[in-house]
Amino acid sequence: MRTINRRQFLRLGGGLLGAAAASTVMGRAILKPTTVVEATGGLGQATPDLHFAATDGWIHLPEDAPVPPYHPDNLAPPLLTTYIFGFRNVSGLGTQQIFAQKMKAQLTAPIWWLTEEQDFTLKVTNLGLQMRPDLVDSHTVHFHGFRNAIPIFDGEPHSSVGVPISRDLTYFYRPHDPGTYLMHCHFEETEHVHMGMVGIVYIRPALGPNYVYNDPSTYFDREFTMTLNEVWTISHWCDSHVQLPEWTDYNPEFYLLNGRCWPDTILPPGGGTDVDTGDLIPPPGYPELQYQPISSLVTCNAGDRVLLRFVNLGYVEQTMSLTGIQMRVVGRDATLLRGRNGSDLTYMTDSALIGPGESLDAIFTAPNVTPPVGADYVTYLLYNRNYVRQNNGGGPGFGGQMTEIRVYPAGTLPPQTAPNT
After folding, report:
1. Strand intervals (E) in 174-267
2. Which long-range contacts (CB under 8 A, 24 or more apart) does 207-214 make?
3. CATH 2.60.40.420 holds for 50-408
4. Is 351 exposed, middle or buried, given 0-12, 13-18 or 19+ CB atoms closer than 10 A?
5. pLDDT tens digits, residue range 296-340?
6. Is the pLDDT of residue 148 over 50?
7. pTM (2 decimals)?
8. Residue 385: strand pairing partners
C-alpha cells in the first residue's frame, strides 16, 4: 500500500519488460508444458492424424413444405435450400485444394474417433465465411465431455484460444476414458452450433475396437452413429441475409439425423473426396445431398449385435424409439452404466431419451428373420416418438428424425469395415 516515486516506478517497469523478454527467450526451454511441446512436433509426426477445415456452405432440406420467405432460401444455389456453417475433412489435401473448399461445409461434421491411451492430433483451419465476410468469427473444436483436455485445447474460447480466419491450430489429445462424445464449435456457440458446426467423436477402449467400453458385455458387430439436431429456418436465412434472429423465438421446423431428414436418411452415403478437386462426391443419383454425406440407414445380419451411438446436438430433448426390437442402454455421457459397487445399471428399452448435449450408447441383437417373398430383408423403424416432429416443415406425410433398420438373414452381409456402412 505504500506509495512509490517516479524513479521506483520506472525501475519496476524495466523489471517487467525484462521478465517479459526472458519469458519470450526462455519460453521453449522453461515455460512451455511438455504436452504442448509434443503437440507442436515432439511426437515426430509430419502431419496431423486428422485435418478439418471450418467454413460455410449450403445443404438441401425437403421442399415439399415451403416456409416462405425463409425456406427455400432465395440465395441458395440450384438443388440446395439452406445456409450452414460446418466442418470438412481435408486430410491429405494440398493448400490450394483446402482453400478451394471454402463455401463447401458439411452437415454434420465427419465421424471421427480416437483410441484409449494413444495420442491424437487434430488440425483445424479456418477458411472464413464466404457469404458473410463481415463476420470475422474464429472457430474452435470443443470435445464436449472430454475429461482430460489441456485448457488451451479445450475449445471453450474464454479459457483457451480460437482459430482466426486463414490460420490453423493443431489440437492434441491423450484419451483415457472410452465412450461416445460430442464435438462442436464453441465460438458464438448459440449461433455456430445451430448453424451446423456439430458432430460425433468417440474413444475406442483398449479392450478392442469392437467394444464400447472396457467391459466384455459391450461387444458389438456393427456400429452406427446418430447425430440429432434441428433447423430453425429463420436463423439460417438471417445469417445468409445479414440479419439477426431473435433466439428467444426459437421454433425449429426440421429435425435431422446425421444432417438429413426422412426419407433422405436412408439414401446412400456420399462417395468420399474427389482427389483432384478436394470436393465431396455426392451419393450416386442424389447430387442435392453432396454436403450431407452421412447415411442413417442401419443394415445388419440376424444375430448381429448392433451399437447405436446417439448424440443430441440440438436444443430440445428427443426420444428415439425402435419398433419391434428391444435395445440395451449400456452407457450415457461416455460412462459405462455401473454402480459404485460394480452393480449392473444397464437396462432394456425400446425408447432412448437423449437431452441436449447428451450422448447414449445402446446395443440391440438383430432378430432372426424370414424376409417376405421377393424381399431380401425385414424392415424395422427407428424414429422420433414425438409425432409433431415427424414431418418436414409441417408438410404432408412423414419426415424428420426417422430411419430404417434392415435385418438380413444370418451370413448375408460381409463384416462392417467402417461406421455407418
Report:
1. 179-184, 198-204, 222-231, 254-257
2. 209/115, 211/178, 212/178, 212/179, 212/180, 212/307, 212/330, 212/331, 212/336, 212/361, 212/363, 213/178, 213/179, 213/330, 213/331, 213/336, 214/116, 214/178, 214/336
3. yes
4. exposed
5. 999 999 999 999 999 999 999 999 999 999 999 999 999 999 999
6. yes
7. 0.88
8. none
